[in-house]
Design brief:
InterPro entries: PepSY (IPR025711)
Pfam families: PepSY_2
Shape: globular
Strand order of the largest sheet: 1-2-3-4
Oligomer: single chain
Protein name: PepSY domain-containing protein
Organism: Xanthobacter aminoxidans
Strand content: 25-35%
Number of domains: 1
Order of helices and strands: HHEEEE
Largest sheet: 4 strands, antiparallel
Distance between the termini: 25 Å
Length: 84
């Protein structure tokens, strides 16, 4: 039984990786993220803020629809809960 409790606690930090904890003063503008993604071949449909992250709806260079989360300071992709 103790092993289950330890396993449950070990999983907690991993879920924190999915949230962005960036002070608003450190956020880059949405336009910077859009420009970065368009340079990578994405077609950005929308960018909104949610859970402290930027959430993007776009199509990738192959034309597939994408939903992705980005850190608003580093503009790097954040793993989604579904990516685990």
């Amino acid at each position: 039984m103790a092993g289950l409790v330890v396993a449950g606690l070990a999983a907690t930090p991993a879920s924190a990786e999915h949230d962005c904890n960036v002070p608003l003063a450190d956020w880059q503008p949405r336009e910077a993220l859009q420009k970065k993604l368009e340079a990578e071949g994405w077609t950005v449909l929308s960018i909104r803020s949610d859970d402290g992250c930027y959430k993007v709806r776009a199509t990738n260079p192959q034309g597939a629809r994408m939903k992705a989360k980005f850190d608003p300071a580093r503009l790097e992709r954040v793993p989604d809960r579904d990516d685990d």
